[in-house]
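The instructor's notes for this session suggest beginning with a concrete chain rather than abstract definitions. Hand out the sequence below and ask the class to guess, before any prediction is shown, which regions might be ordered.
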Amino acid sequence: MKSYLAKKEEVEPKWCLIDAEGKVLGRLAVEVANRLRGRHKPTYTPHVDTGDYVVVINADKIAVTGRKEKQKNYMFYSGYFGNERYVTLEDFRDKKPEFIIEHAVKGMLPRNKLGRAQLKKLKVYAGAEHPHGAQEPEKIEI
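After discussion, reveal the predicted structure:
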């Protein structure tokens, strides 16, 4: 019996809508990354983008466990001496809550052209409104 390998032309991506309100960050990121890669489909092929488009709403209401709200730091370094800076999760929740989910999902995708293409199919919004109503995304419960 031969293994089935999906072709790029055969893949028909769907649109999913995930509400992040009250969900734990890591568990949500795993589910989103698996949907972006297509691991929930029987036609999953590792070297082909078989995943769906994922729209995440209410990113500002994501939950974290323990003391991560104040202790989790994101590091940024420009390459110059003394330009290393740290931003806490609490600060990102106020200023740019979309980054929290995007960063978590990005770390779970492959580090190559395919992973970058899959990350472009992730749409994250801080509030409950999103501009993808025309695509009729299917609501997914996690």
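Then share the key points. The radius of gyration is 17 Å. Strands lie at 15-19, 53-57, 73-77, 84-88, 122-124, 138-140.
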